Amino acid sequence: MAVTADDLDVAVSSVVASLRPATGLDWSARAGGLEWDCWHAAEHVGDCLMSFAGQLVARPEKRFVCFMANADEDASPAEVLEFVEVAGRLLAATVRTSGPDVRAYHPTGQADPEGFAAMGCAETLLHGDDIAQGLGLALRPPRDVCARVLARLFPEAVRELAGVDPWAALRWSTGRIELPGRPRSQEWRWRGAPLGE
Questions:
Q1: Separation CA 56–CA 62 (nearest Å)
Q2: Which of 77, 85, 76, 82 has its CA nearest to residue 22?
Q3: Whole-model pTM above 0.70?
Q4: Residues 54-66 as b or e (16 or more Cβ within 10 Å = b)
Q5: Of 42, 149, 155, 186, which has the fewest beta carbons less than 10 angstroms from its beta carbon?
Q6: β strands within the chain, DSSP E
Q7: Which residues of the chain register pLDDT less than 70?
């Protein structure tokens, strides 16, 4: 039940396809419960995905690679969404060409390619949902990808939330929603390191 580069491709495609029809709307609207507007939330996703690819290429042990990826200031919503897609495809390609023994720094543990793919899926889906909310849309991510991402990043949640929709479980695990009998989590942390390490 590993998270793969194919899962990342599916997550990115799902979000881009959901948001593309809304590129004519006002992306200065607040993105869900975030402090960012929709445009900056999308830029953040692109930066995260590019940074994750950079980590896998450089493989630093104790720090992030020192760069930041930004969209042009005057990029349209369609162009910043294109930035997300390009960054996602670059991370997927990097995951595909990195051996399973590769490790690189992340604050949640020395992550392997699967971990970076899972974190890339989570960043894309969760912030894609934030953007969709800000634009009055509903994101419907692939539940099988959500289940694999949940199992990789929040292994304890798989048992604890058995029977809960994987998308709802992923959003609850990252403090975005309440579930029946479970208040919204105020503190959470996913696991970047491989499960056996």
A1: 13
A2: 77
A3: yes
A4: bbbeeeeeeebbe
A5: 186
A6: none
A7: none
